[in-house]
Amino acid sequence: xxxxxxxxxxxxxxxxLRQRLGQHELRLTDVRAGEGVEALDVTDAAAVDRAxxxxxxxxxxxxxxxxxxxxxxxxxxxRGTERILQAAHHNGVPRVVLASSNHAVGLYExxxxxxxxxxDDVPPRPDSYYGWSKAAMEALGRLYHDRHxxxxxxxxxxxxxxxxxxxRDLSVWLSPDDVARLVEAxxxxxxxxxxxxxxxxxxxxxxxxxxxxxxxxxRDDAEEWAAEVGEPDPAAPEHRLVGGxxxxxxLGAA
Length: 254
Ligand code: 15L
Description:
Layout: E1 3-7, H1 12-20, E2 25-30, E3 38-39, H2 45-51, E4 57-60, H3 70-90, E5 95-101, H4 129-148, E6 151-157, E7 159-160, H5 169-172, E8 173-174, H6 176-186, E9 192-197, H7 209-213, H8 226-229, H9 237-240
Parallel strand pairs: 1-2, 1-4, 2-3, 4-5, 5-6, 6-9, 7-8
Helix pairs in contact: 1-6, 2-3, 3-4
The protein binds D-galactaro-1,5-lactone.
D-galactaro-1,5-lactone binds next to loops.
């Protein structure tokens, strides 16, 4: 059991994790207070520092979760993550799990994947300002690992939802139970790591190596919903590209 500070606890992934990480003492925070959730603006360095006192790990989910104006993703995602890492270091918190995203590398294509799938640690190739902010968060995590020895696991999350919603999800879905398994595994991992956040989907084309290395064993498979979501169009860019439709949307549009 660990004392875990969770940011973004009222978001969709936060809600999934709250129900599934009950064996830990969770300190739930979000930009707005809610039931059992304290208000924490991740860009407020003093408040973040106070929130990090006496915790064993931070699960940092808070931030802008889709494309937005550059200044906004810079302020919230990048500066907010710097505040978290700084406060973790200052308070002797050994471990931070960062919610990165497939959009940090959204412009890779299926043809870039080798026989073992697209590696977890392919260099950044963002598909949007949002994806760029996630790549910057990963780099900040590396800085804090290299300079201060923090263990930082950056999760390159696919499409995390209760159920697959469209044909792309047949490959990139991350189920609620698997995201909990992934975070649980990340809470004992060491070093600085990039790990795909994806379930055991039959049509997965992203490597399983990074997850295996930290003991993440996904169990769910989007294939169960294949008939409902329909078949992908193999010629469509969203089928070819890691980032789905985000790489073809306008830069900076909320
Ligand atoms: C993400 O990182 C976003 O937060 C989410 O809104 C989806 O766009 C997801 O990736 C995805 O790629 O489906």
